[in-house]
Design brief:
single chain; 206 residues; alpha/beta; elongated
């Protein structure tokens, strides 16, 4: 599917497997959100084929039981002057499994490109499992490109601090998990969808 010159493609996908391939023409903007509370397999492929494109990909998976989500992104800067930002988060409880494969490519002639890829993961159980595979190919030298991946557990000192101030352990846990996920949800432009998802997450965490 082509995103024509100067057009905007913005979509929020909730609890579904997504397979999307977009080619961006000059000056177009793409903003995609993937929100998963149950098992899914997502694949997003985007090629910036024109100058001055902007690409934003946000993904959040919050899983329990033996649910699993794989999110795979392929972003190619084929020409210069474009921007891309990816923020991928997983919250895994029980025996849930997550996998992120992030392929970011900047070709030789794609100078003055700005590209960022971040994957952050929160494990709420010792049996949860996360695999992350960032793959960066950068052939241009006049670029700003960053990537990072981290996997950890809830901050025990923060939990203790909150409990010392009269907040129950369950509520403290809920507040910390919500804070971790909020960054992705806050980037959703549609306030009605954003508020609905925040309410859904409050119910799931409890």
């Amino acid at each position: 599917m082509k995103v024509s010159r100067g057009d905007i493609f913005e979509q929020v996908f909730v609890d579904e497997s997504v397979n999307l391939h977009l080619i961006q023409e000059a000056g177009s903007r793409v903003k995609i959100h993937l929100i998963n509370f149950s098992s899914a397999t997502n694949s997003i492929t985007i090629e910036q084929a024109g100058e001055g494109c902007e690409t934003e990909i946000y993904a959040l998976a919050y899983l329990h039981g033996e649910e699993s989500v794989t999110t795979e992104t392929h972003v190619k800067h084929a020409v210069g002057g474009g921007k891309s930002n990816q923020l991928i988060k997983f919250v895994l409880d029980d025996k849930a499994r997550g996998r992120f494969i992030g392929d970011l490519k900047i070709v030789q002639d794609a100078q003055q490109t700005e590209a960022h890829q971040t994957n952050r993961n929160l494990l709420l159980s010792d049996e949860a499992e996360m695999r992350t595979q960032p793959q960066l190919e950068i052939y241009a030298d006049d670029v700003q490109a960053t990537h990072g991946a981290s996997t950890g557990q809830l901050d025990e000192s923060a939990l203790f601090y909150m409990q010392q101030r009269g907040i129950s352990k369950q509520k403290a846990r809920q507040l910390l998990v919500n804070a971790f996920m909020k960054e992705v949800l806050d980037s959703i432009s549609d306030s009605a969808i954003r508020d609905q998802l925040l309410n859904t997450i409050d119910g799931v965490v409890e």
